[in-house]
User: What shape does this take?
Amino acid sequence: MCVRAMSFSYGPASYAAAEVLAVPRALLEETFASMRSCGDGKMECVVLWTGPLGGPEQVDAVVAPPHRATRAGYIIEPAWVTGFYAELRRSRRTTRAQVHTHPGANVEHSGIDEDFPLVAVPGFMSIVLPWFATRDISLDGAAVYEFKSKGWVRRQVCDVISWT
Assistant: This one.
């Protein structure tokens, strides 16, 4: 596996982004379980994939933020975000990707997805799961978007995620 990392400044701490995320398969199962529990096949839900700041390719945890979920979207509780950022900084961790669901097969980024990501720095990933994550535990049919300096770019799942 070829992993080429790039670094850039994100506030007072350095943030490193990987072109390929190394994700344990068990975290995909945890992601789907969280989505199914939250949305019950009727609402959009979100989780965050996190990892150590010093390992730009490593994803080792799933965080389910408190959020308001509807059939057409979700809003993460703003007060929680502030505490989450403080905890990430304290523990030298970072958010690698936001993973959320959409109804049906459409996994295109919506205007809200484009304009209001949790993190808007180059290298951050947004993964959209179809069918409210009610089908097979897989990224088949999902879409991955990477934030670049000029906005979101759709990528192939196999090009940006390596299963460990």
